[in-house]
Description:
single chain; alpha/beta; Rossmann fold; Dna Ligase, domain 1; seven-stranded mixed beta sheet; six-stranded antiparallel beta sheet; 24 helices; flat; binds adenosine-5'-diphosphate; binds magnesium ion
Amino acid sequence: MYLIVLCIRGLTHMDAMQSLFRPESIAVIGASRDPKGIGYQCLKNMIDSGYKGKMYPVNPKADEICGIKVYHNVTEIPEKVDLGLIVVPAKFAIQAVEDCGKKGIKSLAVISSGFSEIGNDDLEKQLVDTAAKYGTRILGPNIVGVLNNPLKCNASFAPYLPYHGTAALISQSGALLIGIDARSWIDKIGISHMVSIGNMADVDFADLVEFFSSDKDTQAVSLYIEGFKNGRRFLEVAKKSSKPIIALKSGVSKRGAAAAASHTGSLAGSSKVYDAAFRQSKVISAHDLDDLFERTMALSLQPPMHGKNVLVITNGGGVGVMSTDSAEKYGIPLEDAPEDLKAMMRKHMPEFGSPKNPVDITGQGDRHHYYNAVKDALSHNWVDALVVLYCETSLTNPDEIAQGICDAVKEANVRKIPIAISFVGGERCINAGAWLVKNGLPYYKTPDGAMNGMGALREYAIYSEEAANEFKPWKVDKKAALDIIAAVRKEGRNALTEPEAKLVFAAYGLPIPKGKLARNVEEALKVASEVAYPVVMKIVSPEIIHKSDAGGVKVNLKTPEDVRAAYDLITANARKYNAKANIHGVYVQNMAPWGTETIIGSTNDAQFGPTVMFGLGGVFVEVMKDVSFRIAPIGQKEAQTMASEIKGYKILEGTRGEKRKDINAVTEAVSKLSQLVHDLQNEVAEVDANPVIVYEDGKGLSVVDARIILK
Ligand code: ADP
Ligand code: MG
């Protein structure tokens, strides 16, 4: 039964997306006679952009707008309507949605504003609830509209359709969408669909990414994001998408986050968590608009870059050197070409050229030189990707160079390796660039842009490979963990004491020092001899979370006398620190030998749920914030990538004569902890293993402190 409901939901969802993006007929509810009104502009834009479907203006007071018959109510339209554009003032929107539902319209793009963006949450909820009664989906409200290049339909109040191409662009900001629309013509960013997503009261990023990843007119999906309603679902959909997704997430600075939150009413998370979440679901990040365009250009036109060898062909030293710097910036190793490839390249340049990488065919390089060099490069197996650079010269014609490159690609790119091109120059170069884009080759004004595009293609290949590493659960004792938590809850607490937290850790296979809770000195002495000296003793009280601050930790206790003295001192300190603290006793544990201090932790991200964090201990975390994040759960391979992201990773690898640390034990622990927080996400809010002492390779680690805070 559940499956059937799911299937029907899936079908109606796809139906709704079809009617949103392939409508054969559109009603404009709130079409206006006033040429300045948005209701007029939307209809006029649809006509002007060349939409061939049926258009039905709806307005109770008009009979004809833009030469088209007007219906007084949407229910009076005799034919089927696929998409409804709602442009009426917010206070009339509910009635309009009701009418559209009755008419059987599956999708509504609600352009009207005046909902949650100005605090009218109730009205927005009413809007969605009304639509839901009829199984109607809502895009928006508070949007610019939907711009559809394949159908030549500008159902929006943006002035014209974007430059035609294969990237679907979804923007949470309407004004920005109109800006990008115009920019697309300047930068030749080819766009299939442009969608203004507005308040995301119903249709969200995940719905659209899901649709566009199976849309035949779309090769890449480009997003401007301020925040998600359900970040976790977005990640799942993105991970499954067969097409690259590029995301510009704004509001990552603290002030920016506040601005975004007040803008769309959605929470913005920390940039580190976003970066991790995106990488895990093979979403390519862009840090600003230029970056978004450059990366979208490459990913919407070219295949991912597998392998690591990029060959650069240039006609000038300057752009060549610049591309070398950029290659490093975007993580592309630019290695010397093998001898036989160099010999091939030497044939296509004068004596003073250079066959190294970048291959400099010099300013004399003309159409034939480019053609031959590109053709030979494409045929050589060492070359995994090609970046072709050109500087305008008085001897050569950019159009001809473009033609030469394009011919070579058409004839010789049988391996379908990715290519990016930069022409540096004036108007002739820009025109040649536009022609290249029309022929499926990404064109950039700067060598850095081309290298950035290539970097994105390489990132996409790497992230896709990483994302294919499925998380395999470890054998754990979830029930034991839940029982401990239940017992804590029963006492009305939401902080586990260290012994309790450590038992939960142990149930998930994390190594902890031997230890036991002692309720008096005699017990403490007994435990100390059981776990073996030297021991560490720590106060156990739900009210004392930071034990050292309360004078509640004594380390390196070597004799029974030490234990006796420590017991009295610790309990006395704790009472002094907090007279009301409920003291369970003292935790006596074996003292772990010294090693490298690290931290493994977890918080619940408002948008993505449980995360896992790793870093080196002490100043690395406190001062330098040198930590990396992932969304839980993650497998050990992913944990390895995650660990290697911190700046202090070299310390784990062993520097200055120090031996390599047990990185394998670290990644295993990170993966296990990620499973713990994911399995127990309904219970656990925060986890801290601080410190985790890591030993030399093969000698494992020890989680010497554990903290778990419940939801
Ligand atoms: P706090 O609540 O103050 O964080 P911890 O349990 O982390 O208390 O103990 C404070 C310090 O004592 C740790 O950072 C670590 O250096 C040391 N320590 C605690 N337990 C052990 C142990 N079992 N073996 C070795 N050192 C320990
Ligand atoms: Mg600690």
